[in-house]
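Q: Structure tokens for this one, please.
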Amino acid sequence: MGIRRAFGVCSLLLCANAVVAAPCAHLRQNPDAWVPSKVDALILAAQRLFDDDEAAPGYKRILNGITTTIRQCKLKEDASFTARYPEFLSYIKALSLAQRRDHELGFDVTDKQYFAETEKYVQIPEFLLDQQFLRAVSRTETLDRAKAFLRALNTTRSPAEQLTFFSYESQHLGTPDNDDSFIRLLILVPGNSSQGLPEKWVQFGITDPGLRTRIRNVSVVATVPGQDQTSNVYFKDYFRTFRRDGSITVKGRWEMGYGDDNCVQCHKSGVLPIFPERGSVKASEEAALQAVNKRFRSYPPATFAGYRDEAQFGPGLSTASEESRKLRFGNSFQGKVADAMRCSSCHNQGGLGALNWPMDQTLISSFIQGGQMPYGVELKPSEREDLYNKLIQEYFDIRDSNPGILKAWLLGKSR
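A: Here is the predicted structure, written as tokens:
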């Protein structure tokens, strides 16, 4: 029985290897048929997910299928294939990594390793963990007390250490623990590069008036000068726990077992400028809003300290050639909308980060259709909607005759 069973197992393995080997041999002989078909499927799934978070299972299924074939057919070891499709292989590897439960942040190292190595940059300043402040910053009704606490702190700090802060309502983005919560208190804590102290943007989610359920999120984005006129940016989300005795504790969201989000999906530029809901910033705090956005504009291009290679994700919105754009939208396409299709003049890998997939639809849509981007461009609402639709179409288009930005890059047509 032992010999027969062993023979049976060997036979099954041989059959399985033969089943895999046959399509793999065909794939290697016809890569120019297989790759474009998988690129099309991936881009279609990505655009569905961009438009609707409920499409995540379909996207993961397509991506996992491609990853499995690459592994089973050993395409990374095929010199001819890797020379023909380096962008495709690198992109699939990067996308697949972010699907793993231990890489939710989207970095090359595990989330555990990232938080361990970056802890010194992303800790919440001790003075913001004072119980008096934490209680005051928990609700809209007591927010003025929290600001009074910060003003009192500033009286003890040198001019270079002054905190800049204001509250506002986000236009579209909820907190990680509540998609329907939009009130924030942002505190810019100055850094000191000579002492190796990072500059920190600390943001508290604030519970809406009259609601009992507390908003727990606190986010930290830290930036420190990098090499070659760049800045290294680090991220961490925290959750507050409101205890029965009135005390409040703060601990990392990931350490508490709640997982995390792919930070760079939204934070292509590292730190994000603040564009509040109109009228949500007090007149007395408008100067603070202008100051933090001015500070954002002063930062050199962001990198992520070697934890992520942005080149793996390719070019972003608006990087199509003039010829490709005319073929897609017609020779007569010109005017204000056409002139506004220039995101990549700022949003590129040497600037504010390319707006490429994976990217957040809510953020992109709100900035374009909400009137903030392109910066300084005046457009009617209908023109902004047209601009947004054309930018997305141009990026995700899979037509063979004139492939969009993502498809052209994945197939090596952008070299």
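A few notes: Residues 116-303 form one domain. The beta strands are 164-169, 183-189, 199-205, 217-225, 231-242, 248-252, 302-303.
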